[in-house]
Amino acid sequence: MKVALASDHGGVNIRKEIAHLLEDLKIEYVDFGCDCETSVDYPDYALPVAEKVASGEFDRGILICGTGIGMSIAANKVKGIRCALVHDTFSAKATRAHNDTNMLAMGERVIGPGLARDIVEIWLTEEFEGGRHAGRVGKITEYEKKQL
Fold this sequence. Notes:
Blueprint: E1 2-7, H1 12-24, E2 28-31, H2 43-55, E3 60-65, H3 69-75, E4 83-85, H4 89-97, E5 103-107, H5 113-125, H6 132-146
Parallel strand pairs: 1-2, 1-3, 3-5, 4-5
Helix pairs in contact: 1-5, 2-3, 4-5
């Protein structure tokens, strides 16, 4: 598995924590920044990472901003991306098992580093259940194919 990781200024600390987790889990990743605490625009980080995941260059993407909202909205504009905003472990498991999400967004101002690590570990290890869920995800994919 290869993971793309990014944050804006509001998610720098948790992004670094997640980078350590990925190293601990021996998961290959690339950190796309940002490395500042001065204000930057979250689409400048979310969109390139989402494009890399959608193209297949990376298997999954993890985005962190202050709330996770902006990052998830931006990422979901990229065709082929299913980015879930997650702040609890139940949703981390469900979004992989039922929605086959390929990107995860979290908010550093919403959760702490320990919970963020738990969410990411669950999200990375949970498998898609398929079955009735595959048909639902397929409907999203078919709808995207019709879009300009």
